[in-house]
Amino acid sequence: MAKYELLRQQLQHEGIMEPEQFFEPDEIDLLPLLRVHDGKYLTKLEEGSWSRQEERRSGFPWSNALIQREKTIMEGTRLCGIEAARGNVALNIAGGTHHAFSDHAEGFCLLNDLAIAAYDLLDRGMDRIAVVDLDVHQGNGTAHITAEEERIFTLSMHGAHNYPLHKPQSTLDIPLPDGTGDRDYLARLDHALRTVMTEFQPQVVLYQCGVDVLATDKLGRLALTIEGCRTRDEMVFQACKEAGIGIACTMGGGYSADISIILKAHMNTFKVARDTWT
Ligand SMILES: [Zn+2]
Question: What is the rounded CA–CA span in Å between residue 161 and residue 50?
């Protein structure tokens, strides 16, 4: 978790972001949470009345601070979504909790910020939201939550042999073989982005830009270089720019042994966002 605070500091330190470009969200209200999550599950989260098994599945020991943190992240992504709906780019320095289901936590994700932001935008009158999930792990929670909602298109490009074992169907799943490198990855992405943009024509994109696609990642099984990862981001931002729509980004995973590589990859996302939108 240290990477998120470091990311913020480094973005300012290198002058990629000015202090006034940051906003600090409050904790999310109950209403947008209830749109996506089961009421009984939310009560359990608040009270910390998880079973041992539920706690293990979440990946975290329960604490009040953990729940506050998660609710703040949810609000961050929700507000980024609103900004994106105005045609702008907005990035959460954390978020991308795509393994959270409506009624249970999984894989370090307690609440699903992408689904929460998507439904919030539907409630604000938008009717075509695309979730572009390029984290190396499949967006199982998001796919499951939004399965019946035709106004939300979920694209997940992920390692075929990575967690989760069971992968609920996204609108478009692109499972990749172990060791996939820049060239094959970017070709598949180009094709997938065209499909989303031309066939679905989203009004806004929610982007899970996890950097666990890097060859150096401990948990990923792909082999992208840092340049390949940057090109990936450029392609997504450019596709939105060309379509004249905004984009909200969540950082997602990144588990390289050397934290400086993760930071560099996440900072590249901010740099590319800034360069594409100015
Ligand atoms: Zn991941």
Answer: 29
Task: Determine the distance separating the centroid of ligand 1 and the alpha carbon of 158, expressed in angstroms.
Answer: 9
Q: Return the pLDDT at 3.
A: 86
Q: Which of 164, 161, 90, 144 is nearest to 121 (CA)?
A: 90
- The parent domain of residue 132 ranges over 2-277
Confidence at residue 237, expressed as pLDDT on a 0 to 100 scale: 98
Q: Distance (Å, rounded) from C-alpha 193 to C-alpha 80? A: 21
* pLDDT tens sequence across 164-205: 999 999 999 999 999 999 999 999 999 999 999 999 999 999
Total count of domains within the chain: 1
Instruction: Say what the pTM is.
Output: 0.97
Q: Please tell me the distance between residue 162's alpha carbon and the centre of ligand 1 in angstroms.
A: 9
**Distance from the alpha carbon of residue 125 to the mean position of ligand 1, in angstroms:** 31
CA of 267 to the centre of ligand 1 (A): 17
On average, the pLDDT of the chain sits at 96
Residue 202 belongs to domain with CATH number:
3.40.800.20
